[in-house]
Design goal:
With 145 residues, this protein is an alpha+beta fold. The protein has 2 domains: 71 residues, Winged helix-like DNA-binding domain superfamily/Winged helix DNA-binding domain (Arc Repressor Mutant, subunit A), CATH 1.10.10.10; 63 residues, Ferric-uptake regulator, C-terminal dimerisarion domain (Dna Ligase, domain 1). The chain has 5 helices and 5 strands. The strands form 2 sheets. Strands 4-3-5 form a 3-stranded mixed sheet, with no helix packed on it. It binds zinc ion (ZN) (2 copies). The site of one zinc ion has 9 residues, from helix 5.
Length: 145
Amino acid sequence: MPRPFKYREALLNLLKGNPIHPTVDWIHAQLRRDHPRLSLATTYRTLRTLVAEGTLCELPFGTGESRFGLNLEHKHYHFICDKCQRILDLPIPANNRLERLVQAETGHQVRRHTVEFYGLCWECAAGLVPCTPALRPPRRKEGVE
Ligand SMILES: [Zn+2]
Ligand SMILES: [Zn+2]
């Protein structure tokens, strides 16, 4: 069995339980708890394979950093929390009228669109610690914030 598939289930389960579109570093750090020998390169290869087959989506983020999430059946928008940096799927349908509007106004042939909302997620806004771990660097020392 090709190595990347060894961690496939673990990776998919992790993303199912943490629908926050994490970074490869975050995913690697979480999976290492159960799979101490898992390398960053293998984590990355596994992610790439899952993106290529359409199981995962890859969102470009910030300075070329990719974030990975499960592909949902329906096209969806994202909410990005300025504080905990989770990227959360929004339960509102994508608005295809936007594409028709742009096309009608400009003549551009619109093929797809994305919309991102930014702010504080409801947990950060309420002063709570988010129930899924925030995307802070995983190995930061206690007390250094
Ligand atoms: Zn937040
Ligand atoms: Zn998503």
